[in-house]
Specification:
Order of helices and strands: EEEEHHHHHHHHHHHHHHHHH
Number of strands: 4
Shape: globular
Largest sheet: 2 strands, antiparallel
Radius of gyration: 20 Å
Number of helices: 17
Strand order of the largest sheet: 1-2
Distance between the termini: 45 Å
């Protein structure tokens, strides 16, 4: 059972509308909407391609393999066939699952640590906004993009949130959506490789990255109370938190509330439990959701935005490195945790990578939440004042 209304980009007039699909892909039955046979087939096919892409990438020992592999496999499938299909409810499922998984990792020491990083987290956001404004200045003055579109195209926030706000400012929402998608894909592709290299160099010796991380995860798994009852309670609490977060309409509310509810439950009882193999499934969903957004129209539009795209890729990767090392030097975060915390990618996507890259998942998710809240809340106010 899925949503009746879908967000559709109407590029002719640069408007963002919610309207029923022309293809009559859904049937209305007693007030509820169900997928038809073709949609079920394409849903299964999309997920299968994502899983295969993740599996093959994992065989190549690529960091965050299931997310990156699913992303590119589904993107290629959608570019070639325009048939990748994941209903909007999958975003909700992925966000709840991500928040629940990360929340189950929260310990009392993580809560104590977070109290000490609120100020560095706010400084991180200020640095990100300043860096974004520099990129927008270059884009508007030298690359032929109007200044309002440039401001939002370089904002390190969520694609949906930033695009909706940009529409109110009369910016070119189709260009913003495309450049924000490029930003998301480039960061998610860059961060795992760079973090892996930094992790290996920080050991002062040659280590097998994958075996080190696997060893750490297995050791943690041994300390958990693996029971079906704990798993069921954790899932229920995460779903309740996710539903409340969804209706709160806060940026990243679904994931954040699911994480907070489960984290509170775990800190108080130490009973929260999510099986580690679920991480790969959630990563596959996250990668497939991003890949399904990439269309042939996006690829064609790239030729008109070559220089802005290069600026976005180089600028945001450089932002990630500089702000990440700032956090590393000013907090007690490990280098992996600092780099992922400063990553201007999707909150759920970056948080899911944490354990694969030897980072602290709860700390990364909390810093990412600070970024999401402040960017969506403060960025429009700053633009209004300019």
């Amino acid at each position: 059972m899925f949503d009746f209304y879908y967000p559709i980009w109407y590029t002719k007039n640069d408007k963002y509308n919610f309207f029923k699909k022309e293809e009559k892909m859904f049937y209305l039955i007693k007030g509820k909407i169900f997928m038809n046979g073709n949609e079920i087939i394409f849903l299964i096919l999309t997920l299968a391609i994502g899983i295969v892409g993740g599996y093959l990438t994992d065989k190549k020992k690529i960091p965050a393999a299931f997310m990156i592999g699913a992303l590119f496999a589904v993107a290629i499938f959608n570019i070639v066939t325009d048939r990748a299909f994941l209903p909007t409810s999958f975003k909700f499922i992925t966000q709840v699952a991500t928040g629940t998984f990360i929340g189950s990792k929260f310990r009392t020491e993580d809560v104590k640590m977070l109290r000490k990083v609120i100020i560095p987290g706010m400084v991180m956001v200020v640095l990100m906004i300043a860096f974004s404004f520099i990129l927008s200045f270059i884009m508007s003055h030298f690359l032929g993009i109007d200044y309002m579109t440039s401001f939002f195209a370089t904002a390190p926030g969520g694609i949906m949130d930033i695009s909706l706000i940009a529409y109110d400012f009369k910016a070119n929402t189709s260009q913003i959506a495309l450049l924000q998608l490029i930003r998301l894909i480039s960061v998610i592709s860059f961060v795992p490789f760079f973090t892996k290299k930094c992790y290996e160099r920080s050991q002062n010796k040659k280590v097998n990255f994958e075996k080190e991380i696997e060893k750490e995860i297995n050791e943690e798994e041994k300390t958990l109370n693996k029971t079906e009852k704990s798993f069921a309670f954790t899932i229920i609490i995460g779903i309740i938190g996710g539903i409340i977060g969804y209706f709160s309409h806060l940026p990243a509310g679904t994931m954040s509330f699911a994480m907070a509810f489960v984290a509170f439950f775990n800190v108080r009882t130490q009973k929260a439990y999510m099986p580690l193999p679920l991480r790969k499934i959630i990563q596959t969903f996250g990668g497939a959701l991003i890949g399904a957004r990439v269309t042939l129209a996006d690829v064609v539009a790239l030729k008109t935005l070559v220089l802005p795209i290069i600026l976005i890729i180089v600028g945001f990767c450089l932002m990630n490195v500089l702000v990440g090392f700032f956090l590393y030097k000013t907090t007690k975060f490990s280098l992996s945790t600092a780099l992922l915390s400063a990553s201007p990618g999707g909150m759920s996507d970056i948080s899911l990578m944490a354990e694969d890259l030897g980072a602290n998942g709860p700390q990364v998710a909390s810093m990412q939440f600070l970024r999401a809240i402040f960017i969506v809340g403060v960025y429009p106010l700053i633009i209004k004042l300019l």
